[in-house]
Amino acid sequence: MDSKKRFIQFVSYFFVIILLSSLTTHCKRGTSTPYKRLRDYISTIKVINTHEHQREPAEYREQEHNFYTLLAYSYLKSDLLSAGAAPLRPELVNQGNLGELWERHGQYLDFSRNTSYYSHFLAGFKVLYGLEAPYFTQEAIHSLSEQIAENYSNREQWYDKAFKAAGFEIMFLDQYWDNFNVNIDDKYFALVFNINQLVGSTPLRSEMTEKEAPENQNIYKLAQNDGLSIKTLGDYLAYADRLFQKFLDHNTVCLKNSLAYGRSLDFEYIPYEKAEVLFARSDSSLSEAEKKALQDFMFHWIIQKSIEVGMPIQIHTGYLAGNGNTLENSRPTKLNNLFLRYPKATFVLFHGGYPWTGEYSALGKMFPNVYLDIVWLPQISREAAVRALDEMFDGVPYNKFFWGGDCHFIEESVGSLEFGRDVVAQVLAKRVKRGLMTEEVAREMALQIFRENALRVFKLEERLKRLF
């Protein structure tokens, strides 16, 4: 009888242990959600950032650095203006007059606490500066400004530290303010050829004033500096060829078109003969439609050149940064004729095409040569990015997505990456929980979006071997 009781006790203890073990395991799993596991995994990916506007140290050599210096180059500044704030006065920023700056702009910062521009900007300071406050307060800004001034007293050292802390591998650098510069720090950056001036300068002539046509932005003056003269369309294209070769010699990874800020994205096909006749006329004699026709011709020429040299073309679509513009200019479907005409070109559409995210997704689904970069979309509207990306994942194969930051300072780029990681993790976790995919596939998708797709499509191993 005693042995039977001991046996029953043993079995009871055994089942109690199994039950406790099961409950413990269940509790542990309960604290580790698909979102958290995916978010943690995404944080380990060395990110290839496919679009940035980071400034070189020399460009700020004479400038003081404080919180408002970074705010002045941030997207959040636009929300302050939208809320009714006056523009930031450069002299107050450079003087570091934090009290007056808060008095002028503090309430508008507060009015913007709900926006994604605000939240992603804040996120960068939480990651890099250990900011614990839930919002920017006058006291927090004063403390941050002291840290910013110290960090930027050795900008190179600070940039290196922040770049590595965020988990960036390389950034694509679009210098829209200095389109033809090829001298960049390739420790951090891969060169992008912004073709805006190459297209936009087509109807201009060398007699343009210095104010209207800065030397570093005007094709005619650049050609003169190289001992060449542009008199015919053939001359212009020959010099454009020369510029392409210059960028190829400096390991350029892609082209960039952000012309939607100044004109529509509908680029009509214009025969060479018509463009040649228009080019021969004086700029003042051309109508706006004729100037557009010359630009249209030039962009078609650039697409053909991109096929020849094997470089993708990034194109700004959708929302236009800043305050006030013609939104309709940037509608993604205006590019449809180009995708049909040039199936061998590689097009990369930017920004989710917001607010036309459905049209943008449809173009990525329809055309094998159209890729989708969700750059900047989470900053414009985090929730729109979640909704749009979930829809995109329903329709578009995941080897067609990239991510970029699109910022001028490293602090905002880090906040942008935090938002990008969160949005992708949230959308993928939702799909895992709904049984639409396994967690293994979700991890694979994240790796492709933040790294592998860019590595393959932009041929980075081929062009940038020394960086990997």
Structural class: alpha/beta
From the 3D structure, determine the CATH topology of the largest domain.
Answer: TIM Barrel
The H/E string reads: HHEHHHHHHHEEHHHEHHEHEHEHHEHHH
CATH-level-4 superfamily name of the largest domain: Metal-dependent hydrolases
Distance between the termini: 73 Å
Q: What's the CATH architecture name of the largest domain? A: Alpha-Beta Barrel
Could you explain how this protein is built, in words?
With 468 residues, the protein is of the alpha/beta class. It has two domains: 61-155; 159-467, Metal-dependent hydrolases (TIM Barrel), CATH 3.20.20.140. Helices cover 54% and strands 7% of the residues. It has helices at residues 2-31, 34-42, 67-72, 76-83, 90-95, 98-111, 116-129, 138-152, 155-166, 196-200, 219-225, 233-248, 272-280, 288-309, 336-341, 357-366, 377-380, 382-395, 410-433, 439-457, 460-463, and strands at residues 47-52, 168-173, 189-194, 254-257, 313-315, 347-350, 370-373, 401-402. An eight-stranded parallel sheet has the order 1-2-3-4-5-6-7-8. α2 (34-42) packs parallel to α20 and α9 packs parallel to α19 (410-433). The radius of gyration is 26 Å and the shape is globular. Mean pLDDT is 91; it is low at 14-20, 22-29 and 206-211.
Briefly, what is this?
The chain is α/β, with parallel strands linked by helices and 468 residues long. It has helices at residues 2-31, 34-42, 67-72, 76-83, 90-95, 98-111, 116-129, 138-152, 155-166, 196-200, 219-225, 233-248, 272-280, 288-309, 336-341, 357-366, 377-380, 382-395, 410-433, 439-457, 460-463; strands spanning 47-52, 168-173, 189-194, 254-257, 313-315, 347-350, 370-373, 401-402.
